[in-house]
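--- STAGE predict ---
source: upstream dedup step, 1 unique chain passed
mode: sequence only
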Amino acid sequence: QVQLVESGGGLVQAGGSLRLSCAASGRTSSSYAMGWFRQAPGKEREFVAAINWNGRMTYYADSVKGRFTISRDDAKNTVSLQLNSLRPEDTAVYYCAMKARGASADTMLYDYWGQGIQITVST
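--- STAGE serialize ---
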């Protein structure tokens, strides 16, 4: 089994930055994609960003492109999300997820999920 644990969330002012990290433990494949998703109150879970198995390709939702950056450090078994220029509408619970190799924006294709971590962006 694989366990994913997010960290780094919290309260930040609009225009500020946060960095989320997701640590993977347990059995992991030699090549896997990682994704970040979020769910705001009253909304469905939505795709935020994904990174492919070797870290050479990244994908972003239109709403965050240019503001957020996903990266991975396989030596530390972590994936991170740098969130810049935060807006109140970025307020949500953020989840990291893992799937075999290929990156995807489809939540149904991910095999493992973290517990989620709250990010609140205030004015």
